[in-house]
Write a sequence for this structure.
């Protein structure tokens, strides 16, 4: 048994081509699902695997699929979230570039299970090359009868399209993604109704992250029990940890859920760059509350990180060294969210801009003593008080950085101010 | 039904009601900016957040539906903090110059700021610079600095007029409402935008800086400029103790009525209100000069003229020309007096010509009560005027209140030849000089009564303005006249108000029974 | 100023629109296509796209101004977008941006007078393992330093 599910064949030359993929048990799971299994059985298997969403929220995929109404005349849709906008995150790019057929196979099984005949892969606009690769792979899949009017002669029809975003972080939020896919501004929708009942074009819609969907073939081929053995009982399988920042070997590392963060940084990512000392780590993409050097001896799973008042998010690990000023880190964070707020909700639209202006002033050497408390207050005004999670995503890192590095931040405020 | 508790107040509301509506039904207003009854909740301003027992986060009152047993607080500490937070953000970028803002006095943001503490601004950064005083429509100006991005205007143009002249451009803090490619808001409902705007971002050029809202008296009325019967508020200024004003009415606002006009009125109804003040006839005029006689004396003269012909059995030589600006009650009285009692030969309508309707509220008919006239039994076909006027000795005309919208030319030539002509008019008009006697009439906005709109709804109205000068409501004159005629005194003696006329009318004409109200 | 879209592009737009339950949904892909052909999206293109997708031009403008990848004005032949987000800034993107400004003699958001280069900073490009990184048109360049940037730029026609 290998502990790599998604990247085990990454070393193979031309894995992205369907022939190579087929030589390595490719589309076996799809064949099994479509010819040997009923939709209910697939759903039960995925539920039993307790596959939690890899996009950030960690919602169990099987449960999500289960919310889609069964007997309904309207078409149903699958939207694969390949927006990958969370700073620090680049894992989905690897899957789509190196193993696009794995994703397509996951799409086929998901669609078959839920009764979907049209799937869209919403990919961030910057990934043009990746989108082209996906389109090539999709076209190969059509040629080999894995997509189209009657997949493998089973009568099951499925079309898959790649839909490129155009530079908006918010479109990674599932309802903003739907708006964007419908050709609109990426303004998140009010929930309820949830996409499972009213989603794309008003129809029931499943939205899953690339990594989540790419896990489906292994679960179908090897069973839920096998999947649960990798990782943790309540949080099975692997995660593709994307490590960036001040480490020797930045990159992706597919490891079992629950791998120790310190181990990932030191053992897998090669430890700190020469002469650098670890100061802090963002463990799950920019919106995850920061961990100090003392806090990184932690199991990388959803629950452990929640317990540590952070989050696993997209499992993007950003490693910060001692020489980096936390005010600069804070500035990058606030600049980002101020830039990416869609502008709908008052506390997020103006709060983020306000915070960013204060932080910029502090970085310019004009900080005032009351600034940090004001930022905290503004961040608290966003926390849990906006329509979509961007308010929280912006508030959490800001609050944690101030809480954990207040002394340092205060040291940048000129005496007497 | 769901029983819920809002701030310790129990209320029973239908399952599926939102918290905001439930609270309103219990007399509790929950602050909101983006929410408007006309649209689906959008949930973006975040002013209506409330605390629900057992839930970890504050929830939106505008979109959250009640569940039986729900306990809601609209004033807990965390709710107040959240609201202050929203206000603080809005006011960070919004100019704090209420005294020079046209919206002052009816601005939601101003009201909420008063309510939630008048806190000092802690915003010390550079404000976003935006454009002010941009022309966005024939009657509209936009101040982007005052905009709170509630998107009510955009949604109105998207969902109601479907013209979509405004959009939201850019994103985040740079998001702004604007027109596109110089295309201004130019539809017959544009004026609703200024009223919809909860703050001073969209203002109405017609009203802007003409007066302050707190001087205005807002009274219910019905629009009479077409036959839709839209419900309105007539907003008037009483003038100052030392200074009078050249006009009374400063603006017409919509009044919600889901059966008639929903939340909106058209621009014609909103802006064409100058007739309420301009060129008003407010004096009794006999032979082209102001007459010192009282209404009582004049009524006697008119009654005498009618009586004379009636007793000479020459009633058929009395002619009556009507316009459907008259109320149901007035038309009912006219029917009783002139058709039943005196049985005059000739009654006809001379309404202004139809114009184009706009497929929404504005109808082709440009008088408010043609349907009422029809239900009372009048023939609305215009007469062959030459024939009509041929042997008329005494002519009464109840004429249009608006200058120039009726073609009186068919009458002009004949007027000279008729022995006695009496015009009941509300405005000065060149035609007036051709009549022997011109009597000043109150407008719909100045009297009580009811109108029947194009689809047959009967709507009562009360005076929204005082009648100017010597103006009299037609119904009052008609009752006095009928009593003087002494043909059916007891019947007319029971009428002391439009309501009392309506009671009898309901008994006599089945159409006016309750179901049409 | 800019000529009509080519028939080929129009045909492609029809093909894309057929994928969706509403034509409007094709807006983002179509705008990408138009920008690919025209370099940026002017009001004229907004109107053409609106016409082809049967939506109001104002809605196209709303979308164009929401997404940062749509250029509303002409950009240089090489559109350089340097990541200024955290992972890249940790590894020195700030000094690389300064280097580019000096080298090209322009500020962020500007285009060189020969219209060869436009310089922008962007938020995370999703290539943090190669930080600091940048995009030139749609090509990614990672693990940058000043010499590498010089090399890349000097080899562009």
């Amino acid at each position: 048994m290998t502990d790599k599910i998604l990247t085990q064949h990454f070393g193979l030359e031309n894995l992205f081509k369907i022939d190579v993929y087929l030589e390595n048990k490719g589309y076996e799971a799809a064949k099994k699902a479509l010819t040997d299994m009923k939709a209910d059985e697939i759903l039960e298997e995925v539920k039993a695997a307790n596959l939690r969403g890899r996009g950030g929220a960690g919602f169990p995929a099987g449960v999500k699929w289960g919310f889609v109404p069964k007997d309904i005349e309207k078409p149903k849709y699958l939207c694969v979230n390949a927006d990958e906008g969370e700073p620090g995150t680049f894992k989905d790019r690897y899957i789509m570039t190196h193993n696009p057929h794995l994703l397509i196979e996951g799409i086929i099984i998901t669609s078959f299970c839920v009764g979907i005949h049209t799937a869209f892969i919403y990919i961030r606009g910057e990934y043009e090359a990746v989108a082209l690769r996906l389109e090539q792979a999709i076209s190969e899949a059509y040629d080999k009868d894995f997509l189209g009017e009657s997949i493998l002669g089973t009568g099951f029809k499925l079309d898959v399209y790649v839909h490129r975003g155009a530079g908006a972080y918010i479109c990674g939020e599932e309802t903003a993604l739907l708006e964007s896919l419908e050709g609109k501004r990426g303004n998140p929708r009010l929930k309820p109704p949830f996409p499972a009942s009213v989603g794309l074009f008003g129809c029931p819609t499943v939205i899953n992250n690339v990594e989540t969907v790419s896990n489906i073939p292994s679960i179908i081929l090897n069973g839920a029990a096998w999947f649960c053995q990798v990782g943790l009982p309540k949080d099975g399988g692997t995660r593709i940890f994307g490590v960036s920042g001040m480490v020797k070997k930045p990159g992706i590392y597919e490891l079992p859920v629950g791998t120790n963060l310190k181990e990932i940084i030191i053992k897998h990512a090669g430890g700190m760059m020469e002469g650098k000392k670890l100061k802090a780590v963002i463990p799950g993409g920019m919106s995850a509350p920061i961990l100090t050097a003392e806090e990184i001896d932690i199991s990388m799973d959803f629950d452990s990180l929640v317990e540590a008042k952070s989050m696993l998010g997209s499992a993007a690990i950003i490693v910060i060294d001692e020489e980096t000023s936390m005010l600069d880190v804070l500035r990058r964070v606030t600049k980002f969210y101020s830039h990416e707020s869609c502008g709908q909700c008052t506390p997020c639209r103006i709060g983020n801009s306000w915070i960013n202006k204060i932080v910029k002033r502090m970085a310019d050497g004009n900080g005032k003593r009351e600034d940090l408390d004001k930022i905290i207050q503004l961040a608290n005004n966003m926390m849990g008080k906006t329509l979509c999670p961007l308010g929280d995503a912006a508030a959490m890192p800001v609050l944690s950085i101030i809480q954990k590095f207040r002394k340092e931040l205060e040291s940048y405020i000129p005496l007497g101010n | 039904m769901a029983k819920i508790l809002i701030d310790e107040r129990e209320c029973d509301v239908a399952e599926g009601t939102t918290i905001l509506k439930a609270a309103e039904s219990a007399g509790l207003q929950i602050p909101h900016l983006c929410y408007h009854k006309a649209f689906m909740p959008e949930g973006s301003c975040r002013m209506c957040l409330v605390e629900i027992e057992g839930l970890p986060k504050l929830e939106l009152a505008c979109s959250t539906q009640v569940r039986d047993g729900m306990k809601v607080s609209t004033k807990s500490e965390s709710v107040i903090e959240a609201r202050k937070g929203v206000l603080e953000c809005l006011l960070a970028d919004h100019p704090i110059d209420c005294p020079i803002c046209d919206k002052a006095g009816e601005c939601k943001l101003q009201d909420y700021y008063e309510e939630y503490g008048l806190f000092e601004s802690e915003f010390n950064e550079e404000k976003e610079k935006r454009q002010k005083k941009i022309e966005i429509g024939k009657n509209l100006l936009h101040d982007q600095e005052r905009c709170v991005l509630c998107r009510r205007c955009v949604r109105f143009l998207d969902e109601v007029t479907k013209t979509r002249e405004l959009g939201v451009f850019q994103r985040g803090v740079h998001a702004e409402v604007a027109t596109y490619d110089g295309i201004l808001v130019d539809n017959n409902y544009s004026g609703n935008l200024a009223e919809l705007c909860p703050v001073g971002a969209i203002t109405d050029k017609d009203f802007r800086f003409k007066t302050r809202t707190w001087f205005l008296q807002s009274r219910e009325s019905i629009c009479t400029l077409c036959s839709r019967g839209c419900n309105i508020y007539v907003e008037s200024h009483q003038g100052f103790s030392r200074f009078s004003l050249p006009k009374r009415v400063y603006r017409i606002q919509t009044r919600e009525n889901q059966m008639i006009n929903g939340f909106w009125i058209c621009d014609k109804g909103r802006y064409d209100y100058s007739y309420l003040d301009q060129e008003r006839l407010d004096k009794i005029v006999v032979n082209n000069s102001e007459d010192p006689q009282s209404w009582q004396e004049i009524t006697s003269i008119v009654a005498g003229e009618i009586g004379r012909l009636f007793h000479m059995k020459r009633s058929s030589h009395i002619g009556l020309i009507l316009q459907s600006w008259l109320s149901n009650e007035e038309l009912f009285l006219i029917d009783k007096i002139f058709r039943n009692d005196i049985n005059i030969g000739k009654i006809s309508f001379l309404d202004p010509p139809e114009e184009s309707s706009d497929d929404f509220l504005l109808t082709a008919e440009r008088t408010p009560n043609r349907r009422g006239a029809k239900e009372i039994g009048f023939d609305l076909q215009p007469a062959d005027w030459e024939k009509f006027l041929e042997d008329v000795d005494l002519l009464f005309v109840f004429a249009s209140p608006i200058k120039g919208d009726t073609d009186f030319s068919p009458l002009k030539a004949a007027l000279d030849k008729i022995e006695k002509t009496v015009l009941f008019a509300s405005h000065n008009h060149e035609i007036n000089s051709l009549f022997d006697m011109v009597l000043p009439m109150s407008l719909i906005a100045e009297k009580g009564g009811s109108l029947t709109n194009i689809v047959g709804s009967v709507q009562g109205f009360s005076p929204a303005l005082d009648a100017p000068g010597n103006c009299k409501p037609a119904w009052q004159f008609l009752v006095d006249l009928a009593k003087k005629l002494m043909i059916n005194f007891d019947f007319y003696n029971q009428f002391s108000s439009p309501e009392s006329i309506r009671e009898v009318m309901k008994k006599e004409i089945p159409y006016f029974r309750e179901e049409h109200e | 100023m800019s000529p009509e879209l080519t028939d080929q592009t129009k045909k492609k737009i029809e093909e894309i629109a057929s994928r969706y339950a509403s034509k409007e949904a094709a807006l983002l892909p179509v705008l990408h296509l138009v920008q690919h052909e025209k370099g940026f999206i002017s009001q004229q293109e907004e109107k053409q796209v609106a016409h082809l997708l049967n939506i109001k031009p104002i809605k196209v403008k709303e979308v164009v101004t929401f997404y940062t990848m749509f250029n509303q004005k002409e950009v240089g032949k090489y559109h350089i977008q340097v990541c200024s987000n955290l992972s890249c800034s940790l590894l020195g993107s700030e000094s690389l941006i300064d280097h580019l400004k000096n080298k090209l003699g322009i500020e962020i958001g500007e285009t060189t007078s020969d219209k060869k280069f436009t310089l922008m900073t962007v938020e995370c490009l999703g290539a943090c393992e190669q930080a600091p990184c940048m995009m030139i048109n749609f090509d990614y360049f990672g693990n940058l330093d000043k010499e590498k940037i010089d090399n890349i730029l000097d080899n562009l026609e």
Q: What stands out?
A: Chain B has four domains: 2-92, 126-204, 218-276, 285-513.
